[in-house]
């Protein structure tokens, strides 16, 4: 039941009645053994009375008639032995659980160091391995978040200082108001774009974010992304060329993220293309490849390994976040992104997404 009042009472009673696992194991084993021995003794007594001439049971029956205490003495001794054995057994079971509990508490306190516990039981070993894996992931996530906020604060500071300087120039009359205002508007647009990218990358990197997957037409998404940026492409006299082997390619994915990745790749291509951007989508083996190629000058070989790093800006770069967003989205779908220079000039960005099974997104 979901009623608040009753839910609170039930939770309160459950907490009140909790007992240690060691005590429960000790009590359960002891009771089971005690009743087993008791039932065995009673059944033996009954059998001896039903079959008085069977073997030497006649003598045992006479002893039992004289003293029921004597007949149940072995049961009492066995019960004591069972309690002692169960006590040590319960300790061996609960001690590893207590160790793992303390380790889990240390994780909650921000200690992201793995342990070197070793257990004989496969279940406990698997649980410990899962906890250590979680620790490594949390440690990496914590480090990336610290780097993210450090770099973000630096990137935000630059346009803010520029806006402040030009605003002061207008106030003190040392700058042309019109020119300063235009610069402030440009810096404001850059700042707005930067904040949008920062919020977006924080969203897709959030380990608790849950996305809903759906079957979408990747070719349709690519065309929609190109149409959204057609005006910007026309302004720079750049045309789109489509190269599709099929009219429709369905894929189960997070449509919003894939659309954002393609948008960023096209936006990046517009920045560097000379006249043409070629958009491709095709199935190869067990993968789908989305390729965005431009006919620009290409990418300097020395910076090629770093262009997907966050806040890394190459020649003519904007915020240094767009391509890193594409990388994060590809990893969300258990895919990958790579960039390469073309033989006839320009660069091509290839987003590879796996076909079949779970694509890696959190749903």
Architecture overview:
With 363 residues, the protein is an alpha+beta fold. The protein folds into three domains: 4-111, no CATH class; 142-205, Signal transduction histidine kinase, dimerisation/phosphotransfer (DHp) domain (Helix Hairpins), CATH 1.10.287.130; 214-354, Heat Shock Protein 90 (2-Layer Sandwich), CATH 3.30.565.10. The protein is 60% helix and 12% strand. It has ten helices and seven strands. It has helices at 4-16, 21-50, 57-66, 68-108, 122-171, 177-205, 218-228, 230-235, 255-272, 322-332; strands spanning 214-217, 239-244, 250-253, 276-284, 287-294, 336-341, 347-354. The strands form two sheets. A five-stranded mixed beta sheet has the order 2-4-5-7-6. A two-stranded antiparallel ribbon has the order 1-3. Strand 4 (276-284) and strand 5 form a beta hairpin. The longest helix has 50 residues, at 122-171. It is elongated and about 115 Å long. It starts with a helix and ends in a 9-residue tail after the last strand. 18% of the residues are buried. The model is unreliable at 1-19, 62-67 and 357-363 (pLDDT under 50).
Layout of helices and strands, plus pairs?
Layout lengths: L3 H13 L4 H30 L6 H10 L1 H41 L13 H50 L5 H29 L8 E4 H11 L1 H6 L3 E6 L5 E4 L1 H18 L3 E9 L2 E8 L27 H11 L3 E6 L5 E8 L9
Parallel strand pairs: 2-4
Antiparallel strand pairs: 1-3, 4-5, 5-7, 6-7
Helix pairs in contact: 2-4, 3-4, 4-5, 5-6, 6-10, 7-9, 9-10
Short description:
The chain has 363 residues and is α+β, with helices and mostly antiparallel strands. 60% of the residues lie in helices and 12% in strands. It is built from 10 helices and 7 strands.
